[in-house]
Amino acid sequence: MQHIQTYCRVFLSWKIDNNSKFIDANRVACKILGYSKDELLNMKMEEIMPLNNIEIGGKSWQEFLNKGTQKEECRFLRKDGTNIIEYVVIANIIPGLHLFSINDITERKKVEDKLKEALTIINKSHSVAFTWKNAEGWPVEFVSENVEKLFGYNTEDFISGKVSYSRCIHPDDLTRVANEVEKYSNEKGTAEFMHAPYRIITKEGKINFVSDWTFIVRNSDGHITHYKGIVEDITERKNAEDRLRSTNRQLEDIIEFLPDATFIIDKDKKIIAWNRAMEVMTSISK
């Protein structure tokens, strides 16, 4: 039994009997749970489980007793009332004696929960998160689930390599996008950059405009391994801007041929249109 106890020194571990009563606990278990060894040896497992986890814990315990081994994530209650999340490996050493080897994953779970929350927000937005490998065609290593709404392709299409990212970029924009990647990648000290808006072609053949905010990922040697980016659908905004420019051009054409001297100012009192009759009257050209 000595080699088992030595191996578990760096982990929270304890031994209990079939009635879930503690019969041994190492120093790490005592430190993390906040109890002394004597206190733990007078307690049962149920006493270190949050109330809303007791029923789940009871079912897991019965499953373990039936199988003789168990691996799962569990939530435990410390003496000060705070919760910790542990990855638990339970082994039946001898009949009636069970060893718990436990690794504290509380901080990891907090990070995972924050990542899940961020992905939930992204998946409900018009923005798609990508991780591209620094390789020909920019193979996709990760993409958020909402990619299908913008590109028509699902996550598996990209991650499996069936579809490369470069294939989705409009041929007339591809060279310019590649040049931007090369330019910013070679700039010393540049960690992120914004592409000028470019077009993508969806699985259905529809053309969408996107903005692309990219972060450069380097290894310890300074070599670029990946790019991470947020690609946002700006098609509606781009179309609205194009309609506004078209309307302004039409308005300028109309006032250009009016016989009366005419000009237009914007809300900031800046002159944005000045017709030919105005030039003649003022001798000031546009």
What does this structure look like?
With 286 residues, this protein is an alpha+beta fold. It folds into three domains: 2-104, 2-Layer Sandwich (Beta-Lactamase), CATH 3.30.450; 116-233, Beta-Lactamase (2-Layer Sandwich), CATH 3.30.450; 238-282, no CATH class. Helix content is 38%, strand content 31%. It is built from eleven helices and twelve strands. It has helices at residues 2-7, 27-33, 37-40, 54-67, 106-123, 147-151, 155-159, 165-168, 171-186, 235-256, 276-282; strands at residues 12-16, 22-25, 69-77, 83-94, 97-104, 127-133, 140-143, 192-201, 207-218, 224-233, 263-265, 271-274. The strands form three sheets. Strands 2-1-5-4-3 form a five-stranded antiparallel sheet, sandwiched between helices. A hairpin with a 5-residue loop joins strand 3 and strand 4 (83-94). The protein is elongated and about 105 Å long. It starts with a helix and ends with a helix. Residues 1-14 have low confidence and may be disordered.
